[in-house]
Amino acid sequence: MVKFILICLLPFKGIIRTMGVDFDQLRSILRIKLTMDNRRSLSLSQKKKESGNQLLLQAFVYAVVGMLMGISLSSIKSPLVSYTVFFAFIMIMIAMLMISEFTNVLIDTRDNHILMPRPVNSRTIVMAKILHIAFYITHMSLSLSIFYIINTIINHGIFATLLLLILIVLASLFTLFLTNIFYLGLMNVVSGQKLKDIIVYFQIAMAILFMGAYQLLPRMMDFINIAEIKMNIHWWSYLIPPVWLSGTMDGFINGIYDWSHLLFLILGILVPILSLFFVIKVLAPRFNIALAQLDVAGSKKQKVSSNGKEKHKIMVFFSRLCAQTKEEATAFKMIWLMSGRERKYKQTVYPAFGYILIFGLLILFNSKKSFNLETLVASKKYLFLIYLPLFVTFNLTQQLAFSDQPKSSWFYRSLPLSNPGQILLGAFKSVIVKYFLPTIIVISGVCLSIWGINLLDDIIFGSLSIILITSLIFSWQNPQLPFSTERNTQDTGGNFVKGILLMLSGAVLGGIHYGLSFVPYSVLIAIPIAIILVFLNFRKLRKVAWNKIN
């Protein structure tokens, strides 16, 4: 694919040279950039396996996502409605993917270090960046649109399809304009480190949004006859970019050329072209200046806050409450802080909390008619809610060993520890208290408000069962010290087996809990048994020796 893209540049060789750009240098820069893209996997992928066909893989993933949306839109009879939703989907997806997947490339300042000292003029560098971005958004937009393009060919013919392709490119250009404004706004407000944190949270929100859309949209469609949806044109319709483009398609398909559709045509073509010139002339130079300032800001030393003890009172309190040794307490506090600073750890773990919210709503509102409190109280659905955090605790502990900077873990071996099990146990307790405890408190509040205070023993037993199962899986695996293993060595097959084991264990525990709920006081009797089992497994984990560490 990289060779094909570079060949496509050859017809524009003369035009590019008239702009003061060295064409050979441009091709060399683009070849390197595209080759790096072809080896860079999606940020939502947990395993970073290097490959030479990532662009094709990404195109396939985007095409599948676009197909799912296209199938739902194909039943809409009104072209104005269907193409409005389609262009809104394309623009939103491009913006979200640009922010979540392409951020590391956009704010990468290595170009300044590598190319500036060499005999490469600034126009060549800027043109390489623009063409690189242009390729990426074209790649994304066409991949997302391929199903709807085929649908347009079948239903409306080749000329409507050609118009659609032009409008997709224009929509991509306008989205590029909006994305540049977004980045420049952030760069002027926050520092380099905070910018990266914001991007991580955006990636997390996008993962939750995808899961929510996948679970909730099919259920919402049962309430709506989407085939008969119609849209009237109002004054505010001229302020919505997807309507400009869909109005142009609607006028061409239905042969309507009134003032409204002509205005949509003018806005849909003129505004994206003007935004492209604005990006090249104004935003691109400012973006490069902002990148340089970002690079300088990132190199400055951060001042260490002097009120650390005041800020981490909760952490210190729980470390004293949960840890039995000084070494365990130290590991508890260290992992508490590191788990909040490791961006990749947060990006991998935090979406699970959103999934809990989505599945919790599905459990409570699975009736297609309405929410029936009496029916809910009479059921035992609280067991599903109580055991939902099991998937969070599994993710918390399984991702704890991996880091993008594993070489910094050398200090573990320099510690005067007779056995590293204290570090493992302190780390386990830290993430359980920091993440699982607030989650189960919120779920407990929901359950107690619906089913009453009599559910308190079930919540305690369920929480202990989750901790027991998670600690057993954590201790059965090959022990690895926290944030000490390179992420691309993660065993996907092993995680799959552990996930199956987790689901089976959760099902067994849930079944046992369900059976105990019919026997009076049986849950109260089971609580001290669960406490003893957790204590025994913790003691075993604390005794893990150095020769067991992977």
TrEMBL record:
Keywords: Membrane, Transmembrane, Transmembrane helix. It comes from the Bacteria. The chain crosses the membrane at residues 55-73, 80-99, 130-150, 162-186, 198-217, 263-284, 348-367, 382-402, 423-453, 459-476, 496-515, 521-538. This is Uncharacterized protein. It comes from Ancylomarina longa. The lineage of its organism: Bacteria, Pseudomonadati, Bacteroidota, Bacteroidia, Marinilabiliales.
